[in-house]
Protein 1
Amino acid sequence: MAAAKKAVLGPLVGAVDQGTSSTRFLVFNSKTAELLSHHQVEIKQEFPREGWVEQDPKEILQSVYECIEKTCEKLGQLNIDISNIKAIGVSNQRETTVVWDKLTGEPLYNAVAAPVSPGPSDPVAVVPSGSSVPAAGTSSVWLDLRTQSTVENLSKRIPGNNNFVKSKTGLPLSTYFSAVKLRWLLDNVRKVQRAVEEDRALFGTIDSWLIWSLTGGANGGVHCTDVTNASRTMLFNIHSLEWDKELCEFFEIPMKILPNVRSSSEIYGLMKISHSLKAGALEGVPISGCLGDQSAALVGQMCFQDGQAKNTYGTGCFLLCNTGRKCVFSEHGLLTTVAYKLGRDKPVYYALEGSVAIAGAVIRWLRDNLGIIQTSEEIEKLAKEVGTSYGCYFVPAFSGLYAPYWEPSARGIICGLTQFTNKCHIAFAALEAVCFQTREILDAMNRDCGIPLSHLQVDGGMTNNKILMQLQADILYIPVVKPSMPETTALGAAMAAGAAEGVGVWSLEPEDLSAVTMERFEPQINAEESEIRYSTWKKAVMKSVGWVTTQSSESGDPSIFCSLPLGFFIVSSMVMLIGARYISGIP
């Protein structure tokens, strides 16, 4: 029976899915795209100072090995022979920056993170300030804001009519991307400076750190990245597909520390045993796929045609639209990025990307800050009880408005309240807010591309909420399509790995791609009602703008002299009081 089961399975492909909060390893059947087994390990974020977000690269690497070993054990329990695993793909959180010592394999600092989307920052945990520089052995994650002053200084050097950074990279100058994090490390961490001087330093995003470590590390590890991750560094020319000398000079980044840029689907190296972690179940298996997480989801959703788009619903939302083999530069606040390049000799495909900063985060806010739900899953039950927001609108601009507004003065509001409004209506309004924000990104995308989307493909944890998915269809007024197999990010990495030259166990030809079962949500309201609700949302958004007028108004500075008129009033009052006492002869 076990032998028959093995014979049916055929070649398998594994995928490392490394995110900000957890690491997973998943194994797929390359012929059916069926998920056979997986294992997940939570990882910590560190907040050494307000606005600083870091992760330990060694903990991330250890979590990858643990997930691989545990998944292989589970496959053994299912009588599945792990020798059938023919390739491994890597999908990773993008922009997060690591610098390590190529001689010892030790990270020189924590991984530094990037914000949920470019522009104003997402709220981050505030902790008491620690030492000025955290201990070595961590990395800079994508939520991190420490580079704001670096960005401000760099922006002064860009001529107003010649933004060569954006024209070469498709990206705005922002704390979000890796170049400014790397610049901060070079300016502030002596260990990094010394390693660069002594030609010991290597830089990479999480994919580079993992591939280098998994293929041998200090003993012959392969230092590379793929075009999708390189395109998020702000050092990569998305037209020539090379590190750009002018950009590296602008950011003062030594090119010798950068990884080699490869396609998203080719053999980079072979898995090696980790003696220190006692891990080596997949020794000799090629690592042959690499994609940033949002590009991986685009591939996993099989958005291979111009104009196809997917939206991933997580803490925030990431909406990517395949623009084919041409770069489309947005006039509506979106980013131009590399979608994928599935082979050394295959063409590169581009995408427009828009981000919603607060999606799942608003549900957590209702749970943790207001306490109107105990678990995130309860939001669907509350919303279902009323089936309407009863005119209540929730704009979760907790740290400003993102694309397409880019308005840092905005703050969150709940408006349209009446005596009848209860927590169920607020819960419904919170779900609607996610959908309205997605529509704003989609409208911007439609204007940039010139071809309206006929449907939206979705994935991510929040898509399990059927009320949310139906609301999304109603508010977009196009069908929303959700695959029955939700692990699209890992699937995309597995597809790239299995399709690589020299592996060839996963065909990406349209006629060979497995038909995926889809759940489809059609609009259930008329177009006029959809437009009325959307225009009322826009009215609410305008009400949220202008709440923050100065930095000091939010800083909570207790000094009475932070207000100059108030200071004059108090000082003059004291002078008058003293003068009156003197004139009246009061001792």
Protein 2
Amino acid sequence: MAKLLSCVLGPRLYKIYRERDSERAPSGVPETPTSVTAPPSSSWDTYYQPRALEKHADSILALASVFWSISYYSSPFAFFYLYRKGYLSLSKVVPFSHYAGTLLLLLAGVACLRGIGRWTNPQYRQFITILEATHRNHSAENKRQLANYNFDFKSWPVDFHWEEPSSRKESRGGPSRQGVALLRPEPLHRGTADTLLNRVKKLPCQITSYLVAHTLGRRMLYPGSVYLLQKALMPVLLQGQARLVEECNGRRAKLLACDGNEIDTMFVDRRGTAEPQGQKLVICCEGNAGFYEVGCISTPLEAGYSVLGWNHPGFAGSTGVPFPQNEANAMDVVVQFAIHRLGFQPQDIIIYAWSIGGFTATWAAMSYPDISAVILDASFDDLVPLALKVMPDSWRGLVTRTVRQHLNLNNAEQLCRYQGPVLLIRRTKDEIITTTVPEDIMSNRGNDLLLKLLQYRYPRVMAEDGLRVVRQWLEASSQLEEASIYSRWEVEEDWCLSVLRSYQAEHGPDFPWSVGEDMDADGRQQLALFLAQKHLHNFEATHCTPLPAQNFQMPWHL
């Protein structure tokens, strides 16, 4: 009876992976008392095949879940319609509650029938036995056996806790349960006394901004967090996860962030291979509709690096909602997991981000300054110009206030706090992070990210003359145009390198540098072009085109 109840309440099982020979337990090692026998690889190498009763019950419950999601998103309009028609009176609500209660009882009955179907299936009984054993005893053998299954991630045991590193427990400077530290935007109106009257005046605007951010705004910014989209992508995500586990020997793990969100991660270890890049770990930060199962993780994998992918809060197996604070909390536990559980030193970690993933990448670079390098592909400097692009002009004030207070993705500000090597990849046909049309390459916000970085690091070089010539170089939309502008200014790379190395030897590596202070305009322009060409590479593609492995290069450094 206990096993039947476990089958009723257990998670949905999607796939049973192949048993990998390299992970099988040695024959001479005795099993722990709570270990169970792993499934044979020859007979169960397939998607899990439920019995008819479980299959039909699952279909009914999945349909009910979709209807519930549609009802949730349309509930404001439904309530307004019912109120206008007078259906919200007590005489109408009571019968409706009876219908709802009856429907819930029917669905509970369907769930019990699904449990019976699972109970009659030896594959599911084997799986639930392993899952229960792993929850009782987190032994390496039990976790190894559980990794052969793909199931609802909410039932996966936690593998790493944000407080697990001993340094976190001993230090009071680490993150609290309220979250890690973020850079806060400055007040819109400086010098205004924050009196009670002013607070009351601002209250309607603040309430409106909160509602916009938590309803329409968050879903527009992170469409991958919408349940219906995830439901439609589920077959693709399952295939991508199977590829990572079976072909790349990936290891899935659940991380618990300081805000209580559970973060779904996938680690591919290349340290034992002949690839020298395998000693380096690339942490991948996906876009606003990207998942590690099918996202930018494939680029460093093809290049031979060890890779750690993770899903945003609210994406696939990760819980929560993808607001900036939750995003930073998730990134913090991912980096801690890489250092304290996977055993990589910060100097061996590279942060690679695509699109909106630039926010968490720049936060990690700012918060973990010893990280080896940062690569930002198709990213931007600030969210406000991109948000204004897609909203009516009459909403400018509301959009700016909402972004600054609730969705402040200040990538450039965070990146300027990082002292290490940076590479920006600009898509020359990008249709997402341009503020006009894709053909207008100067409206690409990646340009602004480069200019802000260079102006912070080399303020004397990026004065009026240097800024003008870099802008001309950024107007080039092809390699031929780029090379033409570069050669027109006769940039002497050896001279530029000697100037920078001399300054570094005399003043140290910390930015900002005052190099170029006593230089003529021609010298500053050459140096500005040299630095821009080293920090930004063009890729002739649209926003969502996968980056080829040969374009994944380490940033330049002295």
Protein 3
Amino acid sequence: MSYMLPRANRTLLLRSQCWYSRANTLTLLRPTTSYFYRAHSTKHVTHADTAATNSAGPEFVSKYYQPRKSEIMDFLYSHQQMPVPTSNNTAVIAKCPQCMKVKRNSFTAHVDLEHGNYSCRTCNTKGSWQDYIKAFRKKKGDNIKAISTSDIRGDRKSARFSRPMNEIELYSTQLQGNPSILEDVCIDTRLTKETLEAYRVGLAEYSSAESKLAAAGDGEPNHTQCITYPQTTLSYGDNQKFTIETTRLKACHLDNVQQPVAFDPVAPIATGLFGYHVAPAEAEAVIITRNELDAMSAYQNTGIPSFSLPTSVYQLPQTVLPLLERFSKIYLWLDDDVDGQLAAETFAHKLGESRCFIVNTRMGDAQGPLTAHQALLQNKNLNDILSKASILQHDQIVDFHELRDEVYREFLSPDQAKGVQSTDLPALNAVLKGHRPGELTILTGPTGVGKTTIISQLSLDYCKSGVTTLWGSFEILNKRLAKKMLCQFAGKDLTKAPNEFDVWADKFEQLPLYFLKFFGSTSIKDVILACQHAVYAYDVRHIILDNLQFMLSQQGRSSLDKWDIQDEAIAELRKFATSKDVHITLVVHPRKENAPALDINSVFGSAKVTQEADNVVIIQKNSQGEDLRFLDIKKNRFDGTLGSIPYKFDNATMKIRGYTQQEMNDLKRRTQSSQKRSYDYDEGNYNLAANMAQDTF
């Protein structure tokens, strides 16, 4: 099917394809070559090829993107540029990245803080703030290093369609040709046949991960009839016209049309959007929703082309940003709760706040619908909801009127306000209440107690709940860390079941999980730069750095320098967590001391480490008697609750688990019957069982 775009939009999309080629994101040699896999073509997308993209490829930045003043100043100061104020309060003078190549003193670039533009009166160069950053990084040789689980796996098979493209293109026809299933879907979803056909929703058979595990090594897995949702894009073909192409399929259960069964290809390559093809060439406004049903509901009732996010989590990868450049108005219609509205604000800043409008589905009604599809099911007027969409307030000073809706939303969703809950260790929720953005957590414990094992399990736990995660392991190689996490994810030692590797690896690959390629001593500036890229490109919400000592090793000439470097690193991480609204978990080794138990003063470094932290968690172990280990929460800035959580390590699953109620009762009985069993903490002895919060277990 040919697709003619206006000349301006056609040029824009061609440039976007060229950007893909430069970034090595996709196999594209020239604009006239399709940039995704076709069954009959020798070209194919390989997610393993994106290793170079994630590490060194240039960021795509929307032309509507406008940096905040704080972002500009933070960048200049963090790169030791020392901006000079001018008589104009909205402008500063900084080093020109072009003049820096020929002379040292080059404070000739005038940077407009209001609009993010710069110009140099010496070399006459000018451009946007992103042009300044790119030129500066090119001069300094900055190299961003981040890879995904697919890159570590290095398996190119997972990035290919499992069947020929001509077969995939018939799935929509198969659904339309099956009246009984089509009618059931229409009744259950309240979507019309015309809407399903317009979005190319199809019918096909795919195997679930469970059936593949059951058949591992023993034949073919059972196939399940599924509803398929295609992600599409436009490709400039040899006929010099744009054609609609399918880049990935999401297959879901017939009885639960939002429950995924499989993805095809397996590798989560986001180069298209569900519903992208429904936008006509002249379209100026679009709607972005969280899932496919919301997109079709919005389109069916408003007539505005609607797309859904490419993954099941709140991620808008930079690989799809070029597809949205031709639209001057974007409605962000995500879930009307705490997480959804935070994601909407993040996306608005990435896409350009001037063209984004945030939709609040509830419109102040506590019992109102959370999503566009729920609004459809409740017979709400979706056009009326859309007409009340508002732009994002980004002034530095706000009054309560502007905060009122956010505060009200936290009252409506108290559980989300507490943070993401741990499913592996429910007792942790009773103390810390949840995993929240914008916080800094310090984790410490004796050598060999299992700090990396525990934090890898907890990070995986939150990642499975949709928290996009970035791992920075400065002590353990990424492949070793990924191997441990894959076994924890599978709940078994896969060296004893190698025939199940592909099945678990395919599921593991769907997680929004990324890894820094740094290892050993790394400057905090480089770490922050990589984290900034990850937050922008992948919408990362949780960053783990393991550990502080290895990251800062061999930096500083004297012990005093080392203290200063560590304090600077802590200050930068604290500032980054707050300004970017991400949770940073920092592993820090304790001091070498002979005390039977660690306390908050045992954390290595100055008092600044624990002062800046929102949470301090110490892994304790009993040095006498039975082998008893527990997580000791020594600081909790959220609500002040402290407590100890005993756990056991399961060698079979490579994971920890909390005590059962019976085990807790037995532990208390043993500790109460032996008055000699006590533990030295802070200023005196305290009985472990007596100290444990009863409501935790």
